[in-house]
Structures are given as structure tokens and as C-alpha cells.
């Protein structure tokens, strides 16, 4: 059962107004907050590792658990949002994520921290596929622009995360950073409940995994694009997990500078993604996607080689430009090729695939850094981006 009503059938598409625009704003605020709560862990890691007396590898395992459960939730979330309602999945995801962040706010041991990370992963996993499917319900001609604004909200969450980390460490402990996250998630859930015209619906749903896998992996082209996206996700999640730690421990910068560099990554992304999304509405997407990946790979190498604050800052801006422009271009392409009736399920399985692979990134960084250093580990991420760029470039040929 569904009661999705696309705004495009009855009214002009408005990114910043009307019913569809209000829903876009709400689900984007929810995504900003979920991303901010997850990404605040990165600048907090050095303090968290010291406070809980754990190794970088164990910290990486916790991040991989969060990202892994988040990845596993993408496919069932999409399938359920197709068969039930988008509202049902979105409100459930916001509520569970809020509960997980509340556990992190009181975590005084590694097992409790691991539990909180797992609950956050489950709640966050229910949310983004349903949110993107909801946006697609209401935007067609401006779908790229809507995706650009929505994905940019997650990057704004990264900028907020850096500020939360600095404030929490200045006045309390790392745990305090999660309290405002809980409050905003509860508020968004309440407002979305009151605003959405959809009803709630709960029922047993056949996930129909075999048919979805058959559609998603039916062509060699789709398989290659998913492989490239997996490499991108691996590099992205490794970077999101340990960039501040790289800047502090290998580069010798202060926690404040490391947090500012981390925030800069997402502030640039918030500016780049809407532009990339609009570009995706006007030109061939594969060449643009390949170029963004190549730019990100080269800039990451430059970041690893940089020694001065200015050089690190410039390299971070260029790296963010390449890395963050990729998702709205590729995601709008994927939504174009998925059948409307199974859009949520197909996107969900695609996201489970590439985010699930990407969840290995933090554990990989922690493992390699323990045995060598963070610079060596991040060099492998640059190589992954370069291989992904080559794969997409091959697909971009006429």
C-alpha cells in the first residue's frame, strides 16, 4: 500500500515553496541533523579514544558498525517506503536515530558506545532512501536541483559537527555534543508528522530481494557504475572518519585547526552540490562524475604532501570540490534509470551495496594507521578515487 502523491502532477515544482518545497526543507533538516550527529564523531575521536582508553582500530570498528548498519538499512527502507508510506519510514528513522544519539550522550564505556553507534546506524539507515524517494515523488524537472539541495544539507551537517565538537570539548566532554542532535531530531519528527499529508501504514512486506537484485545488476554498465560508487564510498567514509585525526597526529596541527579543516570539507560541499545537481540537469552526467573523482584523487595527494596551513587549506578546498560534486550527479542519474514503481527499493539496494562496502573504510584506516601511519592509509583512498574515475570515464565514452 502506498499513498505517495507527486507534486509534479498537480502543481509547479518549487524548490523553496509550496507543499513539495516544505517537505524538501523538512527532510533536508532531518538529514542535516543525522549527518551532523554522525560526523561529529570524527573531530571527537582523539578525545574519545583517550577517554575510553581504546585503540584507533577499535574506534574504527565502532564507526564501521554504525556505517554498516546504516548501509544494511537502505534496501529494506526503500522497499518498505514503496509499499507502506514515506512518512512511516522517515518518522521511524528520526525517532530511532534520536534514541541512539541519546545513548552516545551517556556512554561511559566502549560497549555502551558501540551500542549507541549501532542504534544510530539502524535509525539513520531507515531515513535517507525514503527521503530521496519522497523528493523524487515531488520533483521531476527539477530533480537534480532538489537532490543538490538535499545532499548539500548533509554537508552543512558536517560543518555543524565541527562546531559542536569544538563547543562540547570547550565547555564539557565529547558526550555533550550529542544532546542538541537529539533535541533537533525529535523536533523534526514532530513537525514532519504534522506537515505530511501521508498516513502511517504498518504491514508485513515481501522485500522481493531476488527481483531487485536482478534489476539492479542486470547490465554490465550498472555493475561497473556501482563498483565505481563503492570505491568512492570507501574513500568518503574513510575520510569522514579520520581526516581530523590525520591533521592532528600526522600533520601536527591543533585540534581547532583540524576541526576547521574538517568543517571546510563540508562547507565547500554544501556550496558545490547544488551547482553540481543543476549541472546534472543540463549535461551528460558520466563525464562530469569522472572529472570530479579525478579532481578529488589529485587533491588528496596534494593534501598528504602539504605541510603549511595555507597549503593544507587550499588542498582541502579542492579535495572537497571534487569529492562532494560526485553524489548528486550520480544519484540523479540512478533515479532516472530506476523504474518508478520500484524506485525506492532499487535505490535502497544500490545504497546498501556501495555504503556497505564503504563502511570498511574507517576500519581500514584504523588498521593501516596502527601499523604505519595515517598518511599511508589515506594514500590508499586516493588510489581508490583514481580507479573509480577511470571506470566512470570508460562509461562516459559515446
From TrEMBL:
<keyword id="KW-0812">Transmembrane</keyword>
<dbReference type="InterPro" id="IPR011701">
    <property type="entry name" value="MFS"/>
</dbReference>
<dbReference type="InterPro" id="IPR020846">
    <property type="entry name" value="MFS_dom"/>
</dbReference>
<feature type="transmembrane region" description="Helical">
    <location>
        <begin position="88"/>
        <end position="107"/>
    </location>
</feature>
<feature type="transmembrane region" description="Helical">
    <location>
        <begin position="57"/>
        <end position="76"/>
    </location>
</feature>
<dbReference type="InterPro" id="IPR050189">
    <property type="entry name" value="MFS_Efflux_Transporters"/>
</dbReference>
<feature type="transmembrane region" description="Helical">
    <location>
        <begin position="113"/>
        <end position="135"/>
    </location>
</feature>
<feature type="transmembrane region" description="Helical">
    <location>
        <begin position="312"/>
        <end position="335"/>
    </location>
</feature>
<feature type="transmembrane region" description="Helical">
    <location>
        <begin position="374"/>
        <end position="394"/>
    </location>
</feature>
<dbReference type="GO" id="GO:0022857">
    <property type="term" value="F:transmembrane transporter activity"/>
</dbReference>
<feature type="domain" description="Major facilitator superfamily (MFS) profile">
    <location>
        <begin position="23"/>
        <end position="398"/>
    </location>
</feature>
<feature type="transmembrane region" description="Helical">
    <location>
        <begin position="23"/>
        <end position="45"/>
    </location>
</feature>
<keyword id="KW-1003">Cell membrane</keyword>
<feature type="transmembrane region" description="Helical">
    <location>
        <begin position="177"/>
        <end position="195"/>
    </location>
</feature>
<feature type="transmembrane region" description="Helical">
    <location>
        <begin position="257"/>
        <end position="276"/>
    </location>
</feature>
<dbReference type="InterPro" id="IPR036259">
    <property type="entry name" value="MFS_trans_sf"/>
</dbReference>
<keyword id="KW-1133">Transmembrane helix</keyword>
<protein>
    <submittedName>
        <fullName>MFS transporter</fullName>
    </submittedName>
</protein>
<dbReference type="GO" id="GO:0005886">
    <property type="term" value="C:plasma membrane"/>
</dbReference>
<feature type="transmembrane region" description="Helical">
    <location>
        <begin position="288"/>
        <end position="306"/>
    </location>
</feature>
<dbReference type="Pfam" id="PF07690">
    <property type="entry name" value="MFS_1"/>
</dbReference>
<keyword id="KW-0472">Membrane</keyword>
<feature type="transmembrane region" description="Helical">
    <location>
        <begin position="147"/>
        <end position="171"/>
    </location>
</feature>
<feature type="transmembrane region" description="Helical">
    <location>
        <begin position="225"/>
        <end position="245"/>
    </location>
</feature>
<feature type="transmembrane region" description="Helical">
    <location>
        <begin position="347"/>
        <end position="368"/>
    </location>
</feature>
Amino acid at each position: 500500500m502506498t499513498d505517495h502523491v507527486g507534486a509534479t502532477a498537480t502543481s509547479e515544482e518549487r524548490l523553496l515553496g509550496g507543499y513539495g518545497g516544505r517537505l524538501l526543507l523538512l527532510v533536508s533538516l532531518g538529514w542535516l541533523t543525522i549527518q551532523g550527529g554522525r560526523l561529529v564523531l570524527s573531530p571527537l575521536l582523539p578525545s574519545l579514544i583517550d577517554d575510553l582508553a581504546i585503540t584507533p582500530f577499535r574506534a574504527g570498528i565502532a564507526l564501521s558498525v554504525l556505517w554498516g548498519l546504516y548501509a544494511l538499512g537502505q534496501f529494506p527502507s526503500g522497499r518498505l517506503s514503496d509499499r507502506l508510506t514515506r512518512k512511516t519510514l522517515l518518522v521511524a528513522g528520526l525517532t530511532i536515530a534520536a534514541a541512539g544519539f541519546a545513548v552516545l550522550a551517556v556512554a561511559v564505556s566502549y560497549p555502551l558506545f558501540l551500542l549507541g553507534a549501532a542504534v544510530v546506524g539502524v535509525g539513520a539507515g531507515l531515513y535517507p532512501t525514503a527521503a530521496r524517494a519522497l523528493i523524487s515523488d515531488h520533483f521531476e524537472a527539477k530533480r537534480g536541483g532538489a537532490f543538490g539541495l538535499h545532499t548539500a544539507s548533509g554537508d552543512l551537517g558536517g560543518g555543524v559537527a565541527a562546531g559542536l565538537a569544538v563547543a562540547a570539548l570547550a565547555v564539557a566532554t565529547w558526550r555533550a555534543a550529542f544532546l542538541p542532535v537529539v533535541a533537533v531530531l525529535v523536533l523534526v519528527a514532530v513537525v514532519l508528522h504534522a506537515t505530511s499529508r501521508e498516513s502511517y501504514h504498518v504491514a508485513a512486506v515481501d522485500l522481493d530481494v531476488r527481483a531487485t537484485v536482478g534489476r539492479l545488476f542486470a547490465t554490465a554498465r550498472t555493475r561497473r557504475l556501482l563498483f565505481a560508487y563503492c570505491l568512492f564510498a570507501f574513500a568518503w567514509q574513510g575520510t569522514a572518519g579520520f581526516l581530523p585525526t590525520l591533521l592532528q597526529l600526522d600533520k601536527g596541527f591543533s585540534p581547532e585547526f583540524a576541526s576547521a579543516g574538517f568543517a571546510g570539507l563540508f562547507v565547500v560541499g554544501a556550496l558545490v552540490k547544488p551547482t553540481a545537481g543543476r549541472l546534472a540537469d543540463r549535461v551528460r552526467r558520466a563525464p562530469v562524475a569522472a572529472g570530479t573523482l579525478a579532481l578529488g584523487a589529485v587533491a588528496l595527494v596534494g593534501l598528504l604532501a602539504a605541510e603549511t596551513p595555507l597549503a593544507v587549506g587550499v588542498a582541502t578546498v579542492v579535495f572537497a570540490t571534487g569529492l562532494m560534486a560526485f553524489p548528486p550527479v550520480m544519484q540523479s542519474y540512478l533515479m532516472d534509470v530506476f523504474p518508478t514503481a520500484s524506485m525506492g527499493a532499487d535505490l535502497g539496494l544500490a545504497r546498501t551495496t556501495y555504503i556497505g562496502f564503504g563502511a570498511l573504510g574507517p576500519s581500514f584506516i584504523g588498521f593501516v594507521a596502527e601499523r604505519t601511519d595515517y598518511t599511508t592509509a589515506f594514500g590508499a583512498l586516493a588510489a581508490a578515487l583514481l580507479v573509480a574515475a577511470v571506470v566512470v570515464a570508460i562509461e562516459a565514452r559515446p
